[in-house]
């Protein structure tokens, strides 16, 4: 097999994104997965007797800033104090100088980390959202959600849905000012890795309600979305010992995140099973658009390709953008790869609505 290109059609527009069907030749030499002797040690975690975990190494964090000399202003706002959930809002400073008629799309972002690591304040995600707000020219709301195993799924999905309704009803003076700059007819749910899984599952929940907010959402952007299943895909087998996401670590993160007693063919993990497949009809009915991006260096790429294929079969307006090389989480660590992703997102926006803000 070889990589192939496919042209997708969005509404009446023909949008050519590079859609690469992932290949793995069976004749390739595949390394056997390394034994999972101590996955907690590999993940640098300490399992506590009560089922919680200690995370010895905290990722570097960056505070928000309202420094007027920066191109992006950022501020943290509380969503639910009892759950310790909050949102970091990123506002392009140029919005303050724009004609009020030129409003910005709103991207609601969920960070990665296998459901058990990191924060919206983590420097890698702060920098990513800061640069996305600047390059894509959009208002970004990065959501802090509860982590597993202290709060197993669906806790993160519940936090995500609560955040969406908080955004709609928030009365904070600073946040209310965003109404002058945000185009609430162009709202996108977005996430990378585990955040992609959250954006997808939160989207399914919102779409099922068919309320005012579901009609505000224009689409979903899934960047290397974190999905799995009990059956190993070719990409998972080929990249079983990948240094960025090994099969052993992948399995452990799912074990810590899923409800106790279920396997990886639960619909939270595997979007091709259970009621989640039926719920795609709601996304199709609402006319949401979906962008899925991934690379062939990601062990989960076959999952992404399978999800795009499923959506196509269900009549969802979906675009797949797949590239060669790279690795899981590359956009979080490589600013140049993030910039390439922002170009794809901006082109995606441009194909859906009159997107001319510069």
Automatic annotation (TrEMBL):
Superkingdom assignment: Eukaryota
SUPFAM superfamilies according to UniProt: alpha/beta-Hydrolases
InterPro entries per the UniProt record, alphabetical: AB_hydrolase_3, AB_hydrolase_fold, Carboxylest/Gibb_receptor, Lipase_GDXG_HIS_AS
Gene Ontology molecular function: any one: hydrolase activity
Keyword terms, alphabetized: Hydrolase
Ranges for domain Alpha/beta hydrolase fold-3: 107-330
Family, similarity comment: Belongs to the 'GDXG' lipolytic enzyme family.
Entry-linked PANTHER family: ARYLACETAMIDE DEACETYLASE, RECEPTOR GID1, PUTATIVE-RELATED
The protein's name: Carboxylesterase 1-like
């Amino acid at each position: 097999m070889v990589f192939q290109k496919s042209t997708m059609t969005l509404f009446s527009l023909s949008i050519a994104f590079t859609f690469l069907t992932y290949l793995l030749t069976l004749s390739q030499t595949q390394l056997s997965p390394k034994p999972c002797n101590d996955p907690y040690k590999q993940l640098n975690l300490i399992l506590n007797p009560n089922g919680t975990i200690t995370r010895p190494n905290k990722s570097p964090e960056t505070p928000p800033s309202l420094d007027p000399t920066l191109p992006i202003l950022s501020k943290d706002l509380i969503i639910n104090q009892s759950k310790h959930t909050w949102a970091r809002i990123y506002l392009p400073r140029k919005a303050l100088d724009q004609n009020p008629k030129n409003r910005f799309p709103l991207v609601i972002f969920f960070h990665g980390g296998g459901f058990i690591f990191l924060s919206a304040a983590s420097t890698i995600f702060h920098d990513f959202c800061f640069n996305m707000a600047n390059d894509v020219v959009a208002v970004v709301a990065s959501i802090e959600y509860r982590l597993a195993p202290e709060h197993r799924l669906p806790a993160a999905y519940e936090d995500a849905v609560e955040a969406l309704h908080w955004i709609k009803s928030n009365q904070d003076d600073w946040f209310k000012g965003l109404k002058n700059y945000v185009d609430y007819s162009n709202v996108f749910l977005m996430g990378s890795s585990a955040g992609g899984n959250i954006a997808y599952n939160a989207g399914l929940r919102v779409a099922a309600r068919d309320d005012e907010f579901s009609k505000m959402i224009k689409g979903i952007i899934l960047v290397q979305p974190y999905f799995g299943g009990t059956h190993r895909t070719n990409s998972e087998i080929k990249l079983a010992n990948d240094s960025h996401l090994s099969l052993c670590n992948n399995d452990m993160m799912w074990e810590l995140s899923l409800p106790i007693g279920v396997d990886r063919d639960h619909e939270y993990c595997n979007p091709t099973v259970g009621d989640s497949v039926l719920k795609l009809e709601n996304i199709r009915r609402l006319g949401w658009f979906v962008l899925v991006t991934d690379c062939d260096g990601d062990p989960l790429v076959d999952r992404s390709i399978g999800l795009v294929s499923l959506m196509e079969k269900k009549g969802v307006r979906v675009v797949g953008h797949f590239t060669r090389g790279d690795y899981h989480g590359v956009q979080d660590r490589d600013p140049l790869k993030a910039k390439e992703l922002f170009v794809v997102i901006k082109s995606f926006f441009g194909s859906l609505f009159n997107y001319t803000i510069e």
